[in-house]
Amino acid sequence: MADYFRRLASHATRNHLAIVDPVSPETSTSIHHSYAQLLLRVTIFSERLITAAQETQRHLEGARVGLMVPPGLDFVASLLAIWSVKAIEITHTVTDSRQEFIIYHAEYKTKISPLLQGRCCIDVTTIMPEARPKKVVVPQSQRHQLSPYYIAN
What we know:
It comes from Exophiala spinifera. The protein is α/β, with parallel strands linked by helices.
């Protein structure tokens, strides 16, 4: 996995195209995102997961994380963030999988609101596109839970 993140970082330095978001109903155009933009979102989402885990005294390594985000930049960034903290992304029903964390898009909140109780939840729509990483402090004893990419950045 570390090699995968190194390759992503390499593409980011060259500003290659990473993702084309589907056509937005508001703008009627697709949105292009570079690897640099993707890795910035991954870092921010990883920090949100780490902060949520620290605030609730939960461990991320091997944690089950639900992901309900429409296709596009935030879906890919969420998935990579999950992998960067060595959690496990779950693709089946939330009620059957004992997930501790859920990353979701606001458009799904009414559908999943009963499932959010007792879980660490991150709404990707609350993370502004211009957001910057805060550099969350991870205790040395928990660093083994993170991918080498996250520790290096």
